[in-house]
Hints:
single chain, 147 residues, mainly alpha, elongated
Amino acid sequence: xxxxxxxxxxxxxxxxxxxxxxxxxxxxxxxxxxxxxxxxxxxxxxxxxxxxxxxxxxxxxxxxxxxxxxxxxxxxxxxxxxxxxxxxxxxxxxxxxxxxxxxxxxxxxxxxxxxxxxxxxxxxxxxxxxxxxxxxxxxxxxxxxxx
Length: 147
């Protein structure tokens, strides 16, 4: 499925759900208005007439409620964000140090032919990988220490 099609489907679904929730909120907010009118039977499948004002008002109420929920969740999760960031940097630092340890024996065993031996390329490749992974691991642990 193309991304444009998925976005349209999701957008239409969100609009329909928002309209239905808005209608339910406005109906629940004004029970006196619904009891004042005499009960008239509606045909099966007929929809309640809506106006633009009730739809906009319901949308504003839903947006305000959503904003309150988001602010409340953000306030609750704020202390955990710093700890999670530090923990992430430490875990990534250790993960980057593991390949450096894995390439160390290869580099050590081919150290005698670093200039012109048969394992010349293996030595320099493993040395380069060790340097890169050491840099990434140590810099990640350093950043975790500074936070």
